[in-house]
Amino acid sequence: MLRSSVTAPPLDALLRRYENPGEPLSCKPVTQGLLNRGYRLATTRGAYFLKHHLDGDHDAIARQHRATQRLQVLGVPVAPPLEDSGGDTVAVIGGRCYALHPWIDGRHRNGAQLSTAQSRRLGSLLGLVHTCLAQVMEPHAAHSAEHGSADPEETFALIDELLEKARSSHPRDSFDTLAEHRLLQRRVLLERHAGRRPPPGRAGGWVHGDFHPLNLLYRGAEPAAIVDWDRLGVQPRAEEAVRAAAIFFVLPAGQLELTKVRAYARAYRRAAGADATELRAAVHRVWWERLNDFWILRWRYQLHDRRADPQFPAASALAVWWTEEYEAVCEAFAG
Asked: N or C: which end of the chain has fewer CB within 10 A?
């Protein structure tokens, strides 16, 4: 029996549900997210990834599981959960939802660690995800639903609130100084570009919902598994492609590696059947989204959660650089 300090998840009750999972040896936290918690579970038969879904929406979790099972059949690199002896993939114990996945040995790679050819492969992979999701997921009424864009008046009010919090932070540090600078800078940019707010867009299809380097494992040069499907849903597909590129290919100074973006985007368009017009519209909507987005500052100042602080320098600089290089970014995605 493992000591209780290691066995926060109900391992005995959980493992009894599976055929020959082995006896538990260790259970170590590997993720501490807002949507789930993850553990590396070692047993006498091997290693597993144990996921505790904090939202506890059984039906949504089961839908994510079915999607990954079907995607695997189509050749998408995923890691579907194991089925228990009753054929279920969601274990509900004490009102909490758990899933047991095979452990995937691999590493995360950002855009700086990808060659141009590997960037092209990344674009093809996301295009494959989108086209395969269209095959395995049921048609959804949200395909025709409109998705609004950020209201600059609401953003101005948020900027004022965050400015007050940054200025009154004690003890004040370099992050607070940068936050104040970026908030003032963003207010000027929004005042200048408020007339470029995009009209409501329409959702294009099922997407992963959170496609970024920490949700993609590589084994060597090749993707081994796309993980964390918690945000699987219906959204404009091309916008997910643009958002992903803006995370993978951002440099520390807040610029995008446009050569790699161009290779990635061309491969995505071919794989997903998306045209240049669709990508250009997506670039505009995601640019506007970034211009109005302060999620890292909201985490820090409203939720008192500083886990995302290291991302702020590059992310906040990107919004400024993207505005200055708007046409070059559009050309990289749509050219």
From this structure: N
Instruction: Select from 267, 270, 250, 247 the least CA-distant residue to 258.
Output: 250
- Give the C-alpha distances (Å, rounded to integers) separating 113 from 119, 149, 251, 275: 10, 33, 11, 28
3-state secondary structure of 167: helix
Beta carbons within 8 Å of 168's beta carbon, 6+ residues apart: none
CATH superfamily of 111-334: Aminoglycoside phosphotransferase (APH), C-terminal lobe (3.90.1200.10)
By three-state DSSP, how is residue 180 classified? helix
For the chain, percent of residues with pLDDT exceeding 70: 94
> Is 2's pLDDT higher than 80?
no
Class of domain 11-102: alpha beta
Task: Please name every residue paired with 219 in a beta bridge, in sequence order, or none if there are none.
Answer: 222
Q: Is the pLDDT of residue 16 over 80?
A: yes
Q: How confident is the model at residue 145 (pLDDT cuts 50, 70, 90)?
A: low
How high is the pLDDT of residue 222? 94
What is the helix (H) or strand (E) element at residue 113, kind and residue range? none
Instruction: Give the tokens for residue 310.
Output: 């290291």
Rounded CA-CA distance 124/57 in Å is 31
Give the domain ranges of the chain.
Answer: 11-102, 111-334
Q: Can you give the pTM of this predicted structure?
A: 0.92
